[in-house]
Amino acid sequence: MPRIAKAAPTAPSTMKELKDTLWKAADKLRGSMDASQYKDVILGLVFLKYVSDAFDERRDGIRAELTADGYDEGQIAELIDDVDEYTGRGVFWVPEPARWTFLASHAKGASVDGVDNSIGLLIDEAMDAVMQANPQLTGTLPRIFNRDSVDQRRLGELIDLLNSARFAAQGQGGSDGRRARDLLGEVYEYFLEKFAAAEGKRGGEFYTPAGVVRVLVELLQPTHGRVYDPACGSGGMFVQAEKFIDAHHGEGSDISVYGQELNERTWRMAKMNLAIHGLSGNLGARWGDTFARDLHPDLQADFVMANPPFNIKDWARNEDDPRWRFGVPPANNANYAWIQHILAKLAPGGQAGVVMANGSMSSNSGGEGKIRAEIVEADLVSCMVALPTQLFRSTGIPVCVWFFAKDKGKRAGEVLFIDARNLGHMIDRAERALSDDDIARIAGTFHAWMDTPPVVERAEAALPVVERGSEATETKRPTTYTDTPGFCYSATLAEIKAADYALTPGRYVGAPEAEDDGEPIEEKLARLRAQLEVQFDESARLAEVVRKQLGRVS
């Protein structure tokens, strides 16, 4: 039997302290390996710590239940290892060599069954054991801990430090694995955000800012059916969809998740992310190029949400591809290939939201203008949202969101334009974020326009448009839609055609109306003229003072 690790230090009492502890743990390995490998090591260990903590908590719960029912220790020993008692509660089964107590007791390396093993080898074997015991994790967890590039001493110190964080004990509400899952889900997303910031431009390949994802989720409301992301990154779209469902008293099982990801490491991160959030998604048997080999060729999705890479110049282009219903995309830019791939995936009644570079709204190069015109005339565009700059730390390219709908109901023949460029707030010198109220205003405008209010009104995020002229600080959901100069406008297809099919919101919403201060124009001109005369007199006086001072110097 492995010796039991010493009692862990007192766990942090707040989420902030827990995140700080874990980020401190991550810094233990900074500098000893490249950023991408470092990320895999940290996220893999955090995941392993989570599954072990959730397993231990469920194990304690089973013991307490059996004891309360009068079972003796011998009977408990026979029943406590019933795998179904764990997996049936959404808890992964963790074999003994993969449990954190075992790993922590060998953090400095030790003899196991008479064989000397490094902690890295033990962790690799633990990852194998967890994947073998839980088929849904097959091919997901990293096995890179015993490589020469991983400092085994620092890895052992990292294990020690992670011992101070207990995911299961930190959960708020829920039961068994759900508490641990909610906690680790937040920590995992926090780490993804931190790693994306650290990796700069490359970070954008696997992470979309939560505020941007929420814009898509709050407008589309994916509460049921098939949800698809053809460039799923680390799975953020699916996670936010699950959160939306949970906030509206639904279950994550109400949606079926489908995705595809080009990068192997990112695909593995997405698989772990889905597992942590209790989502059983189909991301394909392996990673792959969506254009070269669509892993879900027959899928008809109820919702598509995507943030594909912008302006790809080298992509797997096939002019005979049946997805190019509205025209063959240019060889030097894949933006309209992504858009048409997504449209081809929509089921009857399906909806989609796609983050794109702003240039996609008005470009005419390589036949893009003609493709855009065909899509507009097919009445598939429901809404265009121009987002603020600097939402993505990884790129300075201004972005927008295209929304599509196979059935626009009474809004057939119209497109809603929302100019949200003035929303958001700077969280540091390089990055802007959308607040809950910002997202609520965008989503509320759309739902008022469609006359389809949100699924369930939430106290923390009413979906509003601020009433013009109102002095109230809180926003209110409009009962009917009205155009708001400078922010939103509902345009007919004829108006869009007259604008040469440009879909830039600023072209349609116009400028905000100047607020009327109530002062008659004649009185205002007289007052300003008098103020100007006084300022002229003061300017002349100061000029005379300066001349006198200069005369003394000379």
Uncertain segments are: 1-13, 169-177, 457-475
In whole angstroms, how far apart are the ends?
A: 96 Å
Give the strand content: 5-15%
Supply the helix-strand structural class: alpha/beta
Return Rg in Å: 29 Å
Multimeric organization: single chain
Q: Into which percent range does the helicity of residues fall?
A: 40-55%
The tally of beta strands, per DSSP, is: 13
| Biggest sheet overview | 9 strands, mixed
Strand order of the largest sheet: 5-4-3-6-7-9-8-10-13
DSSP helix count? 18
Task: Explain briefly what this protein structure is.
The chain is an alpha/beta fold. 42% of the residues lie in helices and 12% in strands.
Task: Give a verbal description of the structure.
There is one protein chain. Helix 13 links the parallel strand 6 and strand 7. It contains 18 helices and 13 strands. The radius of gyration is 29 Å and the shape is globular. Helix content is 42%, strand content 12%. It is of the alpha/beta class and 554 residues long. Strands 5-4-3-6-7-9-8-10-13 form a 9-stranded mixed sheet. Strands 1-2 form a two-stranded antiparallel ribbon. A two-stranded antiparallel sheet has the order 11-12. Helix 1 packs across helix 9, helix 2 runs antiparallel to helix 9 and helix 2 packs parallel to helix 12.
